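Hi R.,

Here are the chain sequences for the assembly we discussed:
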Amino acid sequence: SQTIHQWPATLVQPVGSPLSLECTVEGTSNPNLYWYRQAAGRGLQLLFYSVGIGQISSEVPQNLSASRPQDRQFILSSKKLLLSDSGFYLCAWRLEGNRPNTEAFFGQGTRLTVV
Amino acid sequence: AQSVAQPEDQVNVAEGNPLTVKCTYSVSGNPYLFWYVQYPNRGLQFLLKYITGDNLVKGSYGFEAEFNKSQTSFHLKKPSALVSDSALYFCAVRPAAYSGGYQKVTFGTGTKLQVIP
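And here is the predicted structure of the full complex:
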């Protein structure tokens, strides 16, 4: 069966420090991968998505970047964190191709607090 | 542009009573519709989806949802609420027509369900 791992679960980082959040998927191949941010426990904002290795699309210009060095690995990074980067970050995967009716599977999330 | 509206920020229901969480959508063409649930400090979990066919869709944990094309709605329902159903619920939509490339999924802002013992 497929599983998704996301770590760390919580992170407290000072302003100006770098960030690296990692997400890996097991039990599937060539998934579409996503990074979302959830502010104040509510709506989801899509940050990045990837349809393949090295293919990253950004939905919102910001202080963050993403990379996909391997088929089932998705990394969210920042060189210098801002206070506004605080939030709950969620990684998700979905098998797509020509099937837009598939549901997404989410990781457990990372609570990032920038101080 | 596609959109999802969850008009109720919070829904309170007594344990054992039926519950409804509302969702309306706007999308070009036919929709694919999804419901997800999120418990505190956890990721979203898939509950059910409407693709085509029967307008009443059954999902996990006794939840069901009714697709109404004329009202562009996809309300989540459960006949008898449990305290353990208390969580944040998200509705999502994407267009059914495949036009190549990435098809954006739009999530609603979420509805907090509080089941009172």
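Residues 91 and 107 of chain A are 5 Å apart (CA to CA). The mean pLDDT of chain A is 91.

Let me know if anything looks off.

Best,
T.
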